[in-house]
Write a structure and sequence with these properties.
- The complex is a heterodimer of chains A (about 140) and B (about 600).
- Chain A is an alpha/beta fold and about 140 residues long.
- Chain A is about 45% helix and about 20% strand.
- Chain A has a single domain (about 5-135), classed as Rossmann fold (3-Layer(aba) Sandwich).
- Chain A has a five-stranded parallel beta sheet, with helices on both faces.
- In chain A, helix 3 links the parallel strand 3 (about 50) and strand 4 (about 75-80).
- In chain A, helix 2 runs parallel beside helix 3.
- The longest helix of chain A has 13 residues, at about 10-25.
- Chain A is globular, with a radius of gyration of 14 Å.
- By secondary structure, chain B is α+β, with helices and mostly antiparallel strands.
- Chain B folds into four domains: about 1-125, Tetratricopeptide repeat domain (Serine Threonine Protein Phosphatase 5, Tetratricopeptide repeat, Alpha Horseshoe); about 180-320, Alpha Horseshoe (Serine Threonine Protein Phosphatase 5, Tetratricopeptide repeat), CATH 1.25.40.10; about 375-425; about 430-580, Histidine kinase-like ATPase, C-terminal domain (Heat Shock Protein 90, 2-Layer Sandwich), CATH 3.30.565.10.
- Chain B is built from 26 helices and seven strands.
- In chain B, strands 2-4-5-7-6 form a five-stranded mixed beta sheet.
- The longest helix of chain B has about 60 residues, at about 335-395.
- The interface between A and B is large, with 40 and 49 residues.
Amino acid sequence: MSLVLIIEDEPATAAPVKEALEIEGIRADIAGSGTKGVELFRERAYDLILLDLKLPGLSGEEVLNTIRKENPFVTVIVYTNYSDFGEIKKLTNMGIDGYINKGPEADLDELIDTIKSKLAPIDGDAIDVLFREFPNE
Amino acid sequence: MYEEQRLLADTITKLRFSDQPDEAIALCHQGMSQFPTNSFFPKLQGDICRQYERYPQAAQAYLKMLGLLRPDQFSIFATAYRNLEKSAPTEVMYSFLNDIRELLNNKCLAKELDKNLHIFLGSQLAIDDNFLVFFKQANDDNNINFIRKEIEKWETSQDTSKIEALATLKLNTEETANSRKIDAFLIQRLEKLRKYDLALSMIAKTQKPYQNKFILAAMLRICRKRSDYSFVERELHIDDDFIERSSFNLQYELVYYFQIKDDEERLEKTLRQMRRSAAGSIPIARTLYNFYLSLNRFEDAQSIYTHIQQLEQSQAAEWEQRKKRRVNSVLSRSEEQMESEQAVWQRMKELVSEQEHTRQMIALRDLLKGFSHELGQPITNVRYAVQLYQKKMQKNLDTRHALQVLLSDILLQTNRIGMLLSRFSPIVSPKNESGKFSVRECAEKVFTDLETRLLSQNITHRIIGASALVLTGDQIQFSQVFYNLILNAMQAIEKNGHIDINISVSEYHVLTIIFADNGPGIPEQNFQKIFEPFFSTKDPTSGNGGEGLGLYIVWNILKMFNGTIQIDKNFRSGTKFIIQIQQEKEAH
């Protein structure tokens, strides 16, 4: 079963995401701050990290930086309601695997679908499936 | 075939989690011999060995897996490596690294994997036994020529991870080294590679007391490039004496530094110092000219421009004389030249006023951006809540309770939107009850409104100034100025403190309100930003404001009253605001 880390300071946003993932059979932890997020990331083996950019304390960008320094290969999806193109471009250069809009265009189904597709790409062969079906711990 | 693999993997996992590691590992071996190209069984073996703390075996298994991975599967190795690193002892990781290095040297990995390994392990890979010998040599300045050549060689072969590795080793060793010069050289290379964190750590570790002027300039320059001067603030004491002793390179950096720090006095001092050095040097004069332009100081720029031309002419003159030619026409500037320069200045001045306009547009854009962000959050929450409920309906998971949760979520979030909008009402919809009101009484009324909260936080206040001092306008609207300032002060003080308000008027009918509290004060780096909308250091979800609008509202209301607000940058025992408002001229 896959394990996702949600780094999001708003409980009212994080809770429905976690619940929707669980309906799809994906486990998820919530970190309410960037510091907590980094802490959990170091502790547990996550298959994917969902990262809000606007966080109190350690910013999303700093969190991404730390994660990338320690593991350039873990999948990170950023979701935020910035619509600043420059911002997104900068993040893409820092290495993100996906970007999803919140705000007026927020779409939970789209978010869940994106996460699912990143966790199990359609073109994966049997070994990929094996890799994903068996836990890391 | 896939079903067979799956069945085997299932059995292994069952054994693994029922405390039968040996049996599980035996089956992994069976899997490996049955499906020799499958990287999954070595991975499983590695995971099991790691779980049961058989680290050397885990490393061996992962190494085997690495050899079998498809080029696009590198992240599987990366995760396994990092997880092993968390629990395995250093010796195991060291010999694991040696094995990986050997694998790389034998060139038996796919190109993509090879590349990713270098990105992933970078400087760790560089440190082998030979490298440790080199590291010892690099701890002695007698070897500087050799070390320099070696490092330059790395640079030409783009083997820069070795430079990082050398610095990392130096940082992590306790050994005393006699290598200030080598270290300085290394720092210079690190800066060039933009490894700023490493460079700064090296500076702090090896260059104290800071005297080398290249290192000093590098410290300021790196901080400028990282837009973060905290390192310099921690390590250097920059006073007037420092400015006087500084060379041109350092002065150049100081100009940027004092601009960021908003220290106009020292900025001026540095510029004067540069001006002195510019007397005989065209490049310095040109730099200074550019600084003046960027600071919108056109008179100064113009004067240095004239100076540059004189320098150029005298240089040309010298040159001409040396060639024993007559110099005549070069010295006098033509009418046309003068005129065109005049046009340039005119244009520059126009540009500045355009800049002012652009600045206002940027402020508006920031406000809208902040606003849409603040609204975006509750909208996201409502949409997510609704979509989650729909999902539950589709899967027949909906209950009365889920519906209740949904509805109360929606009410909560829309309430939040409403609260945000109502914060703007003092600016958007003034009551337009214009009249004369006493500023002192206006402040007193706000204190009375907040009395219970002030008492519970044990905050006292004092107002100095005659009740006869008046402003003309909407008193309710103006009371928002005091209301927001007092609320900010209360939040800053938390418990036990004092607020002082001093109201006075000058002979030119400028009303001054000084508002001071004895709280912790505002950190200097935030001075520039506090009046920006949505700038906040508080947690926005805590309720009770914190969205960063208080001072923005204050600033806007004062604008309507033809007034200004500034923070007293020199006040250190709390926060002090200075408000100045032009009183309306007596009409009768």
